[in-house]
Design goal:
The complex is a heterodimer of chains A (121) and B (111). By secondary structure, chain A is mainly β. In chain A, the strands form 2 sheets. In chain A, strands 2, 4, 5, 6, 9, 10 and 11 form a 7-stranded mixed sheet that branches. A 4-stranded antiparallel sheet of chain A has the order 1-3-8-7, with no helix packed on it. Chain B has 111 residues and is mostly beta strands. Chain B is built from no helices and 9 strands. In chain B, strands 1, 3, 4, 7, 8 and 9 form a 6-stranded mixed sheet that branches. Chain B is globular, with a radius of gyration of 13 Å.
Chain lengths: 121, 111
């Protein structure tokens, strides 16, 4: 059974960079046709796709966040990461890492449990 | 403001049927992109409920069904049970954004 686990600081100061890592277990991050994503949910709001990375390193970012987002993958550790720079209070959210297919409009079939990141001085 | 529009809330009594709509545009649902539905209980990971418009993953009861027409999609839940009380999200792909888009979510209350 595939499992995803987010890790990283729960508190980040404004203007700094939010960094999270997702560790994948029970399967290979190098599987063909599967992509790895970050999705967030601000308090009281809906889900927002942040970006997607393929095991080759190819990335796709939400245009609204593109200037601040960097995603990468480490196949040797079966991990992928998110960096979000110049954070503000609006970036406070539960951040989920997830897996989706590369076809059929990207259905997400596995999610991590999520990690709350608060942006505060 | 979410790209896909859902009603903020719906409710129904146990045993009843409810539907949740998801309205998009010609750059996502109307362009032929598939719609997926997720059930989200607070404090847990969202769960894929319906994929590619009408399909249920293994283990999802047939009380849950999906449909799609034009620029909209719907999730129907029949025989409502207390355990169905959750937030439900639709998701598709948007060609303008070149990525995934979600609805704002619908809170289902079982009366």
């Amino acid at each position: 059974q595939l499992q995803l686990q987010e890790s990283g600081p729960g508190l980040v100061k404004p203007s700094e960079t939010l960094s999270l890592t997702c560790t994948v277990s029970g399967g290979s991050i190098s599987s063909s046709n599967y992509y790895w994503a970050w999705i967030r949910q601000p308090p009281g709001k809906g889900l927002e796709w942040i970006g997607t990375v393929y095991y080759t390193g190819t990335t796709y970012y939400n245009p609204s966040l593109k200037s601040r987002v960097t995603m990468s993958v480490d196949t040797s550790k079966n991990q992928f990461s998110l960096n979000l720079s110049s954070v503000t209070a609006a970036d406070t959210a539960v951040y989920y890492c997830a897996r989706h297919r590369g076809s059929n409009s990207w259905p997400v079939d596995y999610w991590g449990l999520g990690t709350l990141v608060t942006v505060s001085p | 403001q979410s790209v896909l529009t859902q009603p903020p809330s719906v409710s129904g009594a146990p045993g009843q049927r409810v539907t949740i709509s998801c309205t998009g545009s010609t750059s996502n649902i109307g362009a032929g992109y598939d719609v997926h539905w997720y059930q989200h209980l607070p404090g847990t990971a969202p769960k894929l409920l319906i994929y590619t418009n009408i399909n249920r993953p293994s283990g999802v009861p047939d009380r849950f069904s999906g449909s799609k027409s034009g620029t909209s999609a719907s999730l129907a839940i029949t025989g409502l049970q207390a355990e169905d009380e959750a937030d439900y999200y639709c998701q598709s792909y948007d060609s303008g954004l070149s990525g995934a888009v979600f609805g704002g979510g619908t809170k289902l209350t079982v009366l």
